[in-house]
Design a protein that fits this description.
The complex is a heterodimer of chains A (517) and B (323).
Chain A (H helix, E strand, L loop, with lengths): L2 H20 L7 E6 L14 H7 L7 E3 L5 E3 L2 E6 L5 E6 L13 H14 L1 H6 L3 E8 L2 E6 L20 H4 L19 E7 L3 E6 L13 E6 L3 H9 L5 E2 L9 H5 L4 E4 L9 E6 L9 H10 L2 H8 L5 E2 L22 H11 L5 E5 L5 H16 L3 E4 L4 H9 L5 E6 L5 H4 L24 H12 L3 H18 L2 E6 L4 E4 L2 E2 L16 E2 L2
Helix pairs in contact in A: 8-10, 14-15
Chain B lengths: L1 H28 L4 H9 L4 H11 L5 H13 L5 E2 L4 E2 H36 L4 H15 L2 H15 L17 H38 L3 H8 L4 H26 L6 H6 L5 H10 L3 H29 L8
Antiparallel strand pairs in B: 1-2
Helix pairs in contact in B: 1-13, 2-3, 5-6, 5-8, 5-10, 5-13, 6-8, 7-8, 8-10, 9-10, 10-13, 12-13
The chains are: A alpha+beta (517), B mainly alpha (323).
């Protein structure tokens, strides 16, 4: 390269970096986003559904956030350390954090939150099962002591899993009827301002937010638009700027993504890692036979489903863990699309054309289309599928009562096999009446032991070995038919910057977002 | 007349209570319950969590006890508490009522006025191109599903032409007041009100046309002609007035359902009314909310039936109140 060219390149670089610096985060502006369905409440300590966290993730905070690689990031804790034996976790809280009513956030609030959530938050209750005690030696230090090492413990502190609750508001009250549930008070970057039920929720900037210079945005409006087509139109006509993942039907995504000044990202779901599969009833009927279940895996063209139904978004699932989850391994038996092999396995299984009841997930047109495609795949290899239509409550009941043969589902995995994977396969989670445990009825003492050991093994390398073994056994046994690692694309105007900066994505609040003028 | 009204009200209360009991059991026959739905939404529904929710909502009690408690509440005008929305049902309904009445009231007024007008024109010019055009248009609007009309209207007037807003009750965050606010709400109202209005307009037009053609053949119309009255007077004073009875009956029945909102239209246009409340309550098995809306709607239907009977009297003075 000549000297002149090098000089020109340097000059160009200089200009570009100056421009980049000039285009740094700008203060001000309003974001109009869609929320669906309308959350029943914004008090994330009491209600843990998706829409609640999406809005309340701006109001409340957890001690930690997580990067796309699921490494912990500072939240209300500025630093943390783990003892050598993996049993003591010490958190230093940020200085100067206050609740939206001006009261200081202290370690007493952390202690109170733990007690609060043990009573109200099913997932937190499970996550805290190894907690022996929690102490506050001073106002800005919290020490968690575990009964035994619990590998996933550092991963349970995001806002949806362990939100901080204001002690001065809730202590000594009936949590469920506290008036503050309707006017939530958190420490987050945005404060609750107004909620016109059925129309919109308005949040405004927290001027006393503990992270200097944040948030950049002045206001957020969350618009409640119940119809998927109407949500697409609202974006198309410029009335909303942000369609969080899952807001529109997948077949609308390619069209919307081609609109002027529109950016699409699948990022921001790494923590949740939505994983889809077919529940297969392991208790009775053809699906009780392992060879029949393996035949299903060969019979279903998952790549085609990804490309056609999900517009190329997501990945074919190789087993019980998503590839973003800790200790994932791809070294498991493979089930490529192979109808001939499926037919051979069905013959070995002695399948005689008995009717197999299949429940699609009643979450809209995308899921319906996917079920149609799977039915066609199964019919092609000679499986007699009876598709049963339900609405959400009906689906919940049939799955909870084990009244199905095949049922579509997807679940979040929360970053660690001990938090979001094991519950679907261990025998202790076989219990009628809940749609989100081991509803397939798979029971294998070896798997029970592996998941029990994996949760408390120490250090990480020991956990890795255990979970690799568990994944291999499960994929061989096919207790459920894993389908896709889902990606819910977030669609935004390109001028909205830094909307997704962590592995929790839009569920983690808009504190880093800014609008290009 | 007073004893007639008193008797009708007494009968209405009995019917209403019977409806409450029937609805109570009908809703519970649907699979699933609110506890399962909420546990599902939390994605972590262990049995303890589901049991806690059932206890909180009183769903752990035997069905007859639940019914007794509900009816007891209704008698003391308490519609109960919404499981999902975490609010008293009465407040939820009252909050949504203005938007629903604005939408359905506007649609009703437009459809009645224009339906009767077009029906009368079609009858007056029966057999001509005008009659054919009105009849064909009425049949098209009657036969086309509302949600499709709604989506096409959005596509044409919001997406393509950008004339009208596609969703909501007002421009959120605009801060309009006074006349500007009224005009803003009116702009948001046009598409949903027209969508509903077109369907009902078609029914009124068809009903008015058929009824007028029947009345026009009757003897008293011939007498009026023989007396030398002008055609306009005969049509307006004699034919239309007598032809309106079945139309008023239909309007009375439909007016009673106005409070229930328009489920599909409110959903597509994100109109924050009672129709959407029903849709969401049904999907979430929010029993108390659904029952509450049904109670209010049933009461309104009964009230409007009574009003219709009273209106008959003024439309046709020959009708007497039988007690």
């Amino acid at each position: 390269m000549s000297k002149r060219k090098i000089l020109m390149s340097l000059a160009t670089l200089c200009v570009l970096s100056t421009a980049a610096a000039a285009e740094g985060p700008k203060a001000g502006g309003v974001i109009n986003a869609v929320i669906q369905p309308e959350p029943p409440s914004l008090m994330v300590g009491l209600v843990q559904n998706g829409p609640t966290q999406m809005v309340a993730g701006n109001i409340y905070e957890g001690l930690l956030r997580y990067s796309p690689k699921l490494d912990p990031l500072p939240g209300l804790a500025e630093s943390w350390s783990v003892s050598e034996d993996g049993k003591v976790y010490t958190f230093k809280l940020v200085k100067g954090a206050t609740w939206h009513d001006g009261k200081p956030f202290t370690s007493a609030d952390v202690l109170f939150s733990i007690e609060f959530l043990k009573q109200t938050h099913a997932r937190a209750r499970g996550n805290l099962v190894q907690l022996d005690k929690v102490e506050a030696p001073d106002e800005s230090t919290v020490v968690f002591t575990l009964k035994q090492p619990f590998g996933p413990f550092i991963g349970i502190f995001e806002v949806g899993s362990l939100p901080m609750i204001p002690k001065h508001i809730y202590e000594g009250t009936d949590f469920k009827t506290n008036p503050a549930n309707n006017t939530p008070i958190g420490t987050g970057p945005f404060m609750f301002k107004e909620w016109q039920k059925g129309s919109f929720i308005r949040l405004v900037k927290n001027p006393s937010y503990h992270v200097k210079g944040k948030p950049n945005i002045d206001e957020i409006y969350w618009h409640v638009i119940p119809d998927a087509a109407a949500r697409s139109v609202a974006y198309e006509t410029g009335k909303v700027d942000v369609l969080p993942g899952g807001s529109v039907e997948n077949f609308d995504v390619p069209r919307l993504s081609k609109l002027k000044n529109t950016c699409v990202t699948g990022a921001g779901w790494e923590f949740f890692s939505p994983h889809s599969w077919l529940w297969l009833n392991n208790r009775a009927g053809p699906t009780a036979n392992k060879k029949f279940r393996q035949a299903l895996m060969f019979a279903i063209d998952r790549n085609m489903a990804k490309d056609v139904v999900w517009n190329g978004l997501g990945k074919v699932a190789t087993g019980p863990s998503g590839s973003a989850i800790k200790y994932y391994t791809s070294a498991v038996p493979k089930y490529d699309y192979d109808p001939a092999k499926a037919k051979a396995l069905l013959k070995e299984a002695g399948y005689k054309g008995e009717k197999v009841r299949m429940l699609p997930l009643p979450y809209g047109e995308t899921w319906q289309r996917w079920a149609e495609m799977v039915r066609q795949n199964l019919q092609d290899v000679g499986i007699n599928v009876d598709m049963i239509a339900t609405d959400v409550p009906g689906w919940n009941q049939k799955v909870s009562e084990w009244d199905y043969d095949i049922a579509f589902t997807y679940l979040y995995q929360y970053g660690d096999p001990a938090l979001g994977v094991g519950r679907n396969y261990v025998s202790s989670q076989i219990a009628k009446g809940s749609p989100f445990n081991n509803v397939e009825g798979y029971s294998n003492p070896e798997i029970d032991k592996l998941f029990a050991d994996g949760a408390v093994a120490f250090p990480d390398s020991a956990r890795e070995e255990i979970y690799a073994k568990a994944q291999k056994i499960l994929v061989e046994d096919v207790p459920v038919a894993w389908m896709l690692e889902l990606q819910f694309p977030t669609i935004t105007r390109c001028r909205v910057k830094n909307l997704v900066t962590t592995g929790i994505g839009v569920n983690d609040g808009f504190r880093d977002a800014w609008i290009e003028k | 007349m007073i004893s007639f009204i008193a008797q009708r009200i007494a009968k209405a209360v009995i019917v209403l209570l019977a409806l409450v009991v029937m609805n109570f059991f009908l809703i519970r026959m649907a699979p699933g319950d609110p506890a399962l739905v909420m546990a599902g939404e939390a994605g972590a529904g262990d049995q303890l969590f589901v049991a806690q929710l059932r206890e909180k909502f009183g769903l752990d009690k035997p069905l007859p006890v639940q019914l007794f408690l509900y009816v007891k509440g209704i008698v003391s005008l308490d519609l109960g508490f919404s499981f999902r929305q975490q609010m008293p049902v009465a407040k939820l309904i009252l909050d949504r009522l203005p938007a629903t009445l604005l939408l359905t009231g506007t649609a009703f007024a437009i459809s009645f006025a224009f339906g009767v007008l077009f029906g009368a024109l079609a009858a007056r010019f029966a057999g001509t191109w005008a009659d054919t055009a009105i009849t064909v248009a009425a049949l098209i609007f009657y036969a086309t599903p509302l949600f499709w009309v709604a989506l096409m209207a959005i596509l044409l007037f919001s997406v393509t032409m950008d004339w009208l807003p596609s969703f909501g009750y007002e421009t959120v965050g605009a801060g309009y007041t006074g006349l500007a606010h009224v005009l803003d709400v009116a702009a948001h109202l046009i598409l949903p009100a027209t969508t509903i209005g077109l369907f009902f307009m078609a029914t009124y037009a068809r009903m008015t046309r058929a009824s007028m053609l029947e009345v026009v053949r009757l003897d008293f119309v011939k007498t009026a002609r023989a007396k030398g009255l002008s055609d306009a007077i005969i049509q307006r004073r004699h034919v239309l007035r007598n032809a309106l009875l079945p139309v008023v009956t239909l309007a009375g029945l439909q007016a009673g359902t106005l409070v229930g909102g328009a489920v599909l239209t409110e959903t597509v246009f994100a109109w924050p009314g009672i129709g959407r409340l029903i849709y969401e309550a049904l999907l979430q098995r929010d029993y108390n909310l659904l029952l509450g809306v049904f109670v209010v709607c049933s009461a309104m239907v009964l009230a409007f039936n009574l009003i219709t009977d009273l209106v008959y009297r003024s439309v046709d003075p020959r009708i007497e109140f039988a007690t």
